[in-house]
Amino acid sequence: MRGSRLPWILLVAVSAFGYGSGPLFAKWIYPTGFDWLDLLAWRHFLAAIFLGVIVLALPAGRAALRSLSPRRALSALAIGALFVANASTYFASLIWIDASLAGLMTYAYPAIVAVLSIFFAHAPSGLRPWVALGIATTGVALGVGGISAGKEPALIGLVLGVASPIIYSCYIILAARLGGESKRGTGSSRGGGIPPLAAVPLSLAGTALGVFALRLIAGRDLLPMPIPGDALLPIIGVATIAGIVPIGAFYAGAQRLGAARAALVSTVEPIFTIVAAGLIFGESLTVIQVLGGALILGAVLVAEWGAIRPSAPARK
Q1: Would the pLDDT of 257 be above 80?
Q2: What is the reported pTM?
């Protein structure tokens, strides 16, 4: 069991670092004249196009898409559309609050996912994951409390920052159920879930459609503003490194680990975000934040020590 979980733990960690790069790319993009709706439109449109081309070019990808019933395909599109609400509140919050604060506030979601999994998915078994969840939540709380901002964050930014993890938790549970998870077990243990090669591109397509619909509802032009030359690389980065990679990696990892356990492993994301934001943008990193980050790492070690500890040498 130890060796079988480790690759999926690492895959979810890769997803966390990918998501953690999102606010960093946004900080480069916003000064070029983009707002959060332009950013989301290009992010998900390019991500859907890039991944769609790759999946259709692969025989396994085409087979996975052909295997879906219309109902399942529509479910994947609908769950992707729900992601718009999460991404919108998150990226919009970055207009008013620091990337480090936004990244840390997001991490209320592992606790929300764990509670929702009791009723709608596969809840973690044993005491260890719940103890780890408490440690991780404490670490995130310390990180948020340790933010030393130059000005008091705007209320609208805080409201948007809180709304994002609530919506994302619902998205994770629904995506896990799409992958086959239920109270009886994870998606991989039960079988019958939609494979990542089919679910992820359809979900991204649903998100892209949702963003363009949101633009119309908001009274905006359907098409976003053209990409300025100095924003091209960050836009590609937010579509791939902070889009395709984390969404796909988390879906695949959660199918093996379960939604609640994968969400717990993902708490390593704010460590990446706050350290990178401090190094790149000069956003303050306090001793309390460092302590919070250490607790988050400790929580992951507590939860997954059986899978990541070094194996004892074989006896001769």
Answers
A1: yes
A2: 0.82
